[in-house]
Write a structure and sequence with these properties.
By secondary structure, the chain is an alpha/beta fold. The chain has 20 helices and ten strands.
């Protein structure tokens, strides 16, 4: 029986919301959308986009480049979705049905889907011959490649199929990490943007590739004079304002998000050995108490003597009595503790002294171990800034004449200690990095919370919990001097407000400083020893809802 178009659209939207766990991301651009929206595979593609796409990575590219990055990221998220559910894999098995209308984008999309599934690629992917680079984009590419002003006709950049194959194969290793994936395809995306315009027909592309010449000279382009050490800074400055958050960033070119192993050193491992020599009896007692509480809440409970539900074979004899009864069924009660995912976000600014870092590391180690034993997924993240005195972002701002209200003037350093999928036994040695002293480093809490919440929102568990361990207000000296002390604090309040309106349960532990002026659910501890007790109490209260007494009937 055919479904009415309005009902079909409603079903697609309902499935998209369900699979993405209510997560909202920017819509796909029209150029990257499937050519037809009347296919079950399209519904799965849109749902996968909302669940797995990270808009922060897309913002790394210019407006023209985003068409191509969105297309490649579509292939990535649909591959991840196909690996998770067999039904989605069946509906997305034919990439031709979900390909965009533009023939170049359709060819690249289908090739990326094949590559990401480990299947062989055709020798020729993009239609031939390639159109000449579009007007303005070629000049900008030449300026970036040569680093100087060019005169007279210049050879156009070339685009090789073997390079396209190599990039797609390399990107296959980064499907789970959107940041690494964006880094792997960045150069390819830039070249594609130079040669193709997804919003135009091939005829228009060739027309626009002819540049007006005066006296045999190529028209000067301002981008040729840009500092080659500042990639894409002009585009960042043009598009930097986030109207929703009323927050801006001078440049993201130096930001880093990496696993802790990227920075881990031998001395960090030695510091971790010292941590194990501390008296851990009290923290272990707290961990065991939390484990008992979580296990009790997760036990299955049944309501018996019901008129419908699952058949209870122990009560079948009632059907043979002189006065038979239909109350031979049982119903499983809703779990007191639903499936959950927990994110622990730790401030690693220089003001966190050694004692605080040691207690935080010890508490995190036992908390994650306890959550694992109770089958609760957990992610551990850290955040600080990348530079102290020698700050290239600040220097760039000075070189450009110190424009007013530049926004954030330091680079972020976001650290992934453990993902929800990784077992703790393989990653707990990463905590050695948490024990490293980082004098002079600051904390940009607002962006850190937004990053952690974006990662958490992609998890499929219905219960999402984030606990922040911080030692005070966000602060960065260069940013505060240029924008005012309350610039970062306003942004943090805005991000907290957004998270608290989402399905994520947010709590904070202030280590020595009062954080209650930012978080509605916050506890400030004055002694390092209280960090562990507070963390275990918060986890128990957030994971196990308050029980209400049920009246007997």
């Amino acid at each position: 029986m055919p479904v009415a178009p309005s009902k079909e659209q409603a079903l697609i939207e309902a499935w998209t919301r369900t699979y993405s766990s209510g997560r909202i991301t920017p819509s796909l651009s029209a150029s990257a959308l499937p050519a037809t929206l009347k296919d079950r595979g399209v519904a799965d593609a849109l749902a996968a986009w909302r669940r797995w796409h990270d808009p922060r990575q897309q913002n790394r590219f210019t407006r023209h480049e985003q068409h191509w990055y969105s297309l490649l990221d579509r292939a990535r998220v649909e591959t991840l979705a196909s690996q998770e559910l067999p039904g989605i894999a069946h509906n997305l098995a034919n990439p031709t049905a979900t390909a965009p209308a533009n023939k170049e984008m359709a060819a690249l999309y289908q090739a990326a889907r094949l590559a990401f599934q480990g299947l062989p690629l055709p020798d020729k992917i993009l239609p031939s011959p390639l159109a000449q680079p579009s007007k303005g984009l070629l000049k900008r590419a030449l300026g970036q490649l040569l680093g100087q002003q060019t005169r007279g006709p210049q050879p156009a950049p070339t685009f090789h199929e073997d390079q396209l194959h190599e990039v797609l194969q390399e990107a296959t290793y980064h499907l789970e990490d959107s940041s690494s994936f964006a880094e792997a395809v960045a150069q390819l995306v830039e070249q594609l943007a130079c040669f193709y315009d997804p919003g135009q027909t091939p005829h228009q592309q060739i027309e626009n590739s002819v540049e007006p010449e005066e006296n045999g000279e190529v028209e000067e382009d301002e981008s040729a004079h840009e500092d080659p050490t500042l990639p894409g800074l002009t585009e960042e400055l043009a598009d930097r304002d986030d109207q929703k958050q009323q927050y801006c960033v001078f440049s993201r070119a130096w930001d880093e998000t990496q696993p802790a192993s990227y920075w881990l050193q031998h001395t960090d491992t030695e510091a971790l050995k010292q941590l194990h020599q501390l008296d851990r009896r009290r923290v272990k007692q707290l961990a065991r108490r939390l484990q008992r509480r979580l296990l009790a809440a997760s036990q299955r409970q049944w309501l018996f003597d019901q008129e419908d539900g699952r058949l209870d074979n122990r009560r079948l004899a009632r059907l043979l009595d002189d006065k038979p009864t239909q109350r031979v069924f049982r119903v499983e009660k809703e779990a007191l503790m639903p499936e959950a995912c927990v994110t622990l976000l730790v401030d690693q600014s220089g003001s966190m002294n050694l004692k605080r870092r040691q207690i935080a590391a010890m508490a995190i180690e036992l908390a994650v171990h306890t959550l694992e034993n109770c089958k609760i997924r957990c992610e551990v993240l850290g955040f600080t800034t990348r530079y102290t005195a020698d700050n290239p972002v600040f220097r760039s701002w000075l070189q450009r004449g110190k424009p007013e209200q530049p926004g954030r003037l330091n680079a972020l350093q976001h650290i992934i200690y453990k993902t929800p999928e990784q077992p703790w036994r393989r990653t707990k040695h990463h905590l050695g990095l948490l024990l490293r002293s980082m004098p002079g480093h600051e904390n940009i809490d607002g962006e850190a919370l937004h990053w952690a919440a974006s990662r958490l929102s992609r998890q499929p568990q219905p219960r999402k919990i984030m606990i922040v361990i911080s030692d005070g207000a966000p602060y960065d000296k260069a940013t505060a001097q240029a924008n005012g002390r309350d610039f970062l604090e306003r942004h943090l309040r805005h991000i907290i407000s957004d998270i608290e309106k989402s399905p994520i349960s947010l709590a904070a532990i202030g280590t020595g400083q009062d954080v209650a002026r930012f978080y509605n659910n916050a506890i400030t501890v004055r002694t390092p020893d209280a960090v562990a007790e507070t963390l275990f109490e918060q986890l128990g209260d957030l994971l196990v809802p308050t029980q209400t007494n049920e009246g007997s009937s």
